[in-house]
Amino acid sequence: xxxxxxxxxxxxxDEALLxxxxxxxxxxxxxxxxxxxxxxGAKRLVRIASAxxxxxxxxxxxxxGLHFLKTLAQGVEGLAAPATINPGGVDFEAWRELGADxxxxxxxxxxxxxxxxxxxxxxxxxxxxxxxxxxxxxxxLAWAESSAVSFANSALGARTQRxxxxxxxxxxxxxxxxxxxxxxxxxxxxTLAVDVEAAIRTAADAGALGAIVGPRAxxxxxxxxxxxxxxxxxxxxxxxxxxxxxxxxxxxxHFDGVTPEAMDALExxxxxxxxxxxxxxxxYALPGLKRSGPVDxxxxxxxxxxxxxxxxxxxxxxxxxxxxxxWLMTSRSVAKRAEAEGFxxxxxxxxxxxxxxxxxxxxxxxALGFHAVATDSAKAATYLPSHQHVETFFGNxxxxxxxxxxxFF
Length: 409
Ligand code: F3S
Prior knowledge:
By secondary structure, the chain is α/β, with parallel strands linked by helices. It is 39% helix and 14% strand. The relative contact order is 0.13.
C-alpha cells in the first residue's frame, strides 16, 4: 500500500497561487513546490531570499526544456524573489570567434529570453555570490547549482538545499521552498569527521581532497580539520565544495577555524565516524582521466573565476605563450572588471581568453572542435569524460598552464 504523505499547511498566499491568482504558470510552480515539500516530509514551507536556476544550457535541455520553461512562464509577470541563472552553452559576445553554430546560439538565446521575461537576472554564472548576489548568513535560498550551493551553505553560512533546476525555478516564482534538509539546524550537523594530514597547497589539491571525501560523505556533512593554503582559502573552499558536490552530492561541509559554523574539535560528537586523508593521489586519479597526452584546450575557472583569480592568472602568464586554447571562465560582470584592470589584455597577449556565459561541461565542445581538455577543477574532471566524451586531464593550475604552452599534458 502506498505510504501516506504528511499534510503540508499552506498559507492564504500559497492557496491563492494554487488557485491561479498569478496565472497558470505560477499555479503549476506552487504545485511543484508543495509536492516536493511533501515528498521530503517537510512540515512547512519557508520564504526564500533568492533563487538560482541551473540546467539552462540548450545543449542539455534543448526544445523540450524550452517548452517546459514556457509552460511555467505563462502569466508570470515578475518573480517573488531575486533570481539568477547558471551558465548556458555559449559566450553570447564571442560565439562567432569560438565557432559556435548560429542555430545553437539561437536556441540558447530563446532559453535566456524566457527566463529574463519572467524576471531572472541572466548572469549566466555558477558564482552568483560574485555577481552581487552573495547571501547573508542564515538566509534561506533555493539554489540549484551544486558548487554554489556548497559555497553558500559552507563558506557563507546561508541555507539552501541542493535544489533541482525546475524546483529552483518554481521557488523563484512562488518565493517559497521546503523547510527540510540543510535548511534546518538538524540537517547541518556533521556526519563525518575528516582529519587532513596531506598538504593542501593549491585549490586543485582541495578539489582532489573533495574527490576522496565526497563518496565517503555520501550526501552527509563532513567536518574537516586541517590547513588550507594561506591566501587561497576562498578558492580552496570553492574547489573542495564543488568537488564533493560532484562526487558525493555534498551540499554542506564545515572546516575547522575557517567556515562560520565549524565546531571546535572538542565539540564534535566523539562517536562520529572519522577518516584520515594523508595522500591526495587517489583524488587526482579520477575514473576516466588520462595521465598524459596531447591537449587542445585548457580550461580554468570552474567554478567561475573571481577577479582575484583572474588577476593572479594574468600575472602568471606574463612573458609566456600558450600553444593550445586557454579558456578562463567567469561571469560577464567579473569579466568587465577584469578588462578594466587590464587582466583580459594580459591573458590575450599570452594566447588565452576570458570566456563568459558558459562552462566547460555544458558548452558544445565537440562542435567547437575540442577533443582533449586539461583542467585544474576536480568537478570538471569528474564530469568531462562522461558528459563531453573528451580526453580529460586534471592537475593544478601551473601544470595546466604548462600543458597549454606545450599542447601536451
Ligand atoms: Fe560552474 Fe560549470 Fe564548473 S557550472 S562549477 S563552470 S562545471
